[in-house]
Design brief:
Layout lengths: L17 H4 L13 H11 L3 E5 L5 E6 H9 L9 H4 L1 E2 L10 H10 L4 E5 L5 E6 H12 L6
């Protein structure tokens, strides 16, 4: 579910936080999953990256389209390479309480499209994307008519 869909008008955008923007239904994979299944998730879901988590859903890393393309370019078979070998460990994250302006700064500074949202113990609780932020801005600043 995209929580940003529930932001409705007349709010100061700068007061919004990651928890209000994020998608909380997140597709993730385990370290032992193969590259082919990661590519399937990315292409079918229209995502640019997928989080890699342990059994307790703690974030371990992230695999992007670029990681998979790099493996293909090196003539590796995606069915035989594991997520743990492809992933970027310790990816840039935000907490559910991270303000909108800080999220935008991180996205821009690192040229990211989306970032994992993790709680205080490092458990994946959502994903926030540039598109979610833009939609949040539109929804928050839209003037609603009262009849």
């Amino acid at each position: 579910m995209r929580r940003v869909d529930f932001i409705v008008g007349a709010r100061d955008f700068k007061t919004l936080i990651a928890e209000q923007f994020m998608q909380d239904a997140v597709f993730s994979h385990q370290p032992g999953d193969d590259g082919e299944s990661l590519a399937q998730t990315l292409t079918e879901g229209g995502f640019g990256s997928v989080p890699i988590v342990d059994q307790s859903h703690h974030l371990l890393g992230i695999v992007s389209e670029f990681d998979l393309l790099h493996a293909v370019k090196e003539e590796k078979h995606l069915a035989s390479i594991k997520a743990e070998d492809l992933m970027t460990p310790n990816p840039i994250t935000v907490s559910p309480e991270t303000p909108a302006m800080d999220i935008m700064q991180k996205l821009e500074a690192k040229h990211l499209i989306r970032m994992p949202v993790v709680n205080k113990v490092g458990r994946l609780v959502g994903i926030v994307s540039r598109r979610d932020i833009l939609l949040g801005y539109l929804n928050a600043t839209r003037i609603t008519k009262v009849f």
